[in-house]
Structure formats: structure tokens, C-alpha cells
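Many introductory courses stop at the sequence. We go one step further.
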Amino acid sequence: MNIVIIGGGFAGVNLAIDLAKSKKFDVTLVDKNNYNFFPPLIYQVATAFLEPSSISYPFRKLFSGKKNLHFRLGELLKVVPEENRIVLSNGELNYDFLVFATGAETNFFGMENVKRNSTPMKTLEDAIGMRNKLLSQMEKATICNDPAEVKRLLTVVIAGGGPTGVEISGMFAEMRNGILRKEYPDLAGKGSEIYLVDGGNALLSPMSVKSQQDTFNELNELGVKIRLNTHVVDFVDDKVIFSEGEAIESKTLIWAAGVTGMVFEGIPPEAYGRGRRLLVDAHNKVNSTYNIYAIGDCCLQTTDEKFPNGHPQVAQVAIQQGKNLAKNFVNIAEQLPLKPFTYYDKGSMAIIGRAKAVVDMPSPKVHFNGVIAWLAWLFIHLISLINHRNRIKTLYNWMVAYFTKDQSLRMIIKPAAREEKVESV
């Protein structure tokens, strides 16, 4: 049975590795990157607390030794369902079953200036780009004689009050209150400000009221300026413009305000639902298809009675759907009944800063914060990394950062600009 998986995130990798245990399957995973990475920690790469290799691992090394599991570097251009064929940026593949595990992409809600000028937080490239930008701007600020320009260089606006927005706000605040004052003493008191903006009436809206209140209070104590019930509507001429007309002068807008699914040529329009997510049945088969499946953030499944409006777009859903689909493919091969997917909610958590975090457990309903919640967050994220090498490197960096209140990864590393040579004729 030839199975092609598009996307190597939580869902795709868990499906591929589980399928590789059976010789009944020949599996090819396609991804536009040659590595798997851990999205919940990319903000720590962006703030130079982790290096990229701490949260990423090459697919070919991950798959080595698994003879029925293959990797293909490429981007999906088109699906030809009637021929069981896909067209990639560098060739074609045939399949018996096709699985979309592409995750989601940043949603800018049609705001072209925001899309063009802001920094999203979805990929390692985004994180490295943001790290380079922030470090470069601090260097520029040290030699700038215009106080207003210095303030624009040092002011950061984060749009989106979910876990990513909260975690990066807390990290920036601690950097400003510690590292910035120590390594850039000439910038102390020059107007560095951090704004966290969200269109809802609370931060971490899916979490408990206690978690929302604790998070608000902790960030406020760290000096983050929180704006609720406020939307960013434009970002132009170094001004972040809010829905009520107010504008904040800043050169940095970090966009963590929403995601959307991707549209694939060859998939019928009726297969898409809210947020351009692929509508799937209880076994993750895409509507209006017979051998195409979708798992993780890119799918919308409404058959789970506890989640009639679809599952949250979080890692645990993707992991569990990948593993459930692997079992169902085995059942298909053995002509056994399929198992419908039901999500087991293991809880929600967010880190706010050093020894500060919030955790909600669903059954029984328990909320806790502070050091215990922080240690729980560290442990869960550490064991969720893809292999022992990543876990050891990440743990080492975290220990250094905790005991020294510092990190030594603040290097600006970017490709050199090269002038194209024009040959004379």
C-alpha cells in the first residue's frame, strides 16, 4: 500500500513513523523543508535563548534505518485525484492513499501592509529573521542620536494574546529588564516598550479565567502594556494602527493573531470549511474524496461529540490524529473496522517568564501557576521534542539561562548580500 503524506509536522511525522512499523506500507513524506521542527519553541529561537538545531532535526536522519519510509523534498503544486497522482515542484508521485498534514499558515485577514511589514511566528525562518532584526535594531539604537527614532527601534508590538503572543511578550520583558540593561547600558531608559494587543476581552481565551487573570497580572508586573478588545488594522510608515484609531510608533510588529488553512489545486471547493480547513469524517477522510485524508491543523472534524465545532489547533490533536489514522490504515489493510477519532484533552499551559507559568488540567478541573506550573511546562515541552539530542541541547540551554539569567546565542547571522556580476559581451 503506497501512502504519501504531505507535511512533516506533529501529525505527519507521527503517522509516518507508526506506519513504518508495518511492512504492508510504503510511505513517502513530502515537505518543503528537509527538517522537522518544534513550533511551540520557535519564539525561544527568535529571542536567542535556543539555537535552531535545538528544536529541529533532519527528516533523513530521523527516518534512517526504516526501509519502507522515504523523504521527498518539494512543494505540492497540484492533486490529480482521478489519477491518484500529485504534482510537486520537482516531479510527480503516485499514491494509493494521500494524507494532508500541512498544518496552517499565518492569517493576515487581508491586510497587505501588515503581511508585507510584520514578522510572523510560524517557521524557523521567521524566528531567525526576527532574531536578526531585533538584534540589528538594538545595534542601530546604540548609535542613533534621535530619541524618537531610538524609541521606534526599541518598541515592540505583539498582535495576538494566545500562547505564542503571551510567551514572547514575557520573554521580551525579561530580556529588557535584564539583558538589555546589562549588555546595552547606553539604551537604559530610552523608551523600550512592549505592547501585547488582542481583539478579545482576555488573554489566553481558551484557558480558565484564573489562568487569564494570572497571565494578565504577571505580564503587567513585568511591564508589558496590554491592550484588549483592540485590533491591529494597519502597519505603515513605522506606525501600528489600532481599530479605534490610535497609533503606536514602532519598527517591529510581531504577528501571532491567527492562522488559516491552505487551498490545494485539485481538491473540490466543497471539501473546505471554516478557516479553509479540510472537512473530514470521523476517520479523517476528506469530504467528497475516497482515498484522501487530512490530519492536524489543516482539517476540521465535527464528529467528535465533545468538540462539535472542531478541535483546537494544538499539537496534541495533531499527534493523536496521526496515531489514530496509522491504526486505521492497518485496519484497512487487514479489512477490519475503522476506529473513529476522539480527542483526549491533556490540558493547556503557557509560560509567562522565569519561574512563571499557568496550567489548566481538564479532568479533574485543576488550575495551578507559579514555579510548579513552570516546571510542568518545561517537562512537557522537553519530552515532546523529537529525539534525545534535541532534549539534551534544549535542557542545557535552559539550565544556563536559568542560573545565569542570560544566554550567549545573540549573534546576527545572515547571508551576505552579493552583487550580481554582469559579464561584458
